[in-house]
Design brief:
3 helices
Amino acid sequence: MKEQKELGKNDFTKIPNGGPGVEHRLSLIYSGGVHGGKFSANRFVQLVSTAPAKLFGLYPRKGTIAVGSDADIVVFDPNAEEVISVKTHHMRVDYSMFEGMRVKGVTKTVLSRGRVIIDKGTFTGKAGTGEFLRRKTYSGAG
């Protein structure tokens, strides 16, 4: 945080926006939502996968498991627990706004276009293998 916030020392418009947390987003939503009794596991999948893919005009290439889709799959253990900490996260930032929070539900493996890129919490992918996808305009249908 020190280096990022110093960018705005003489011009606050240079300070980066937002707070880091993408690594733990699924666990936070699952823990507070499904485990917390607020919504179902089916609604969880819709919130974290299908709806964003539709909003960004990437559905059905993304956001579903179907013939012709990209085979982006997350293997998620709903019973695993972890404590979020800057000491163990993989993000390139030196703080966590969720420091010390215990969550239930943890991502174990991630496949991108059918290739394992995270295996048991360890990044196994290769830099440069991503693909830019031009998004469509959201139509609001479906």
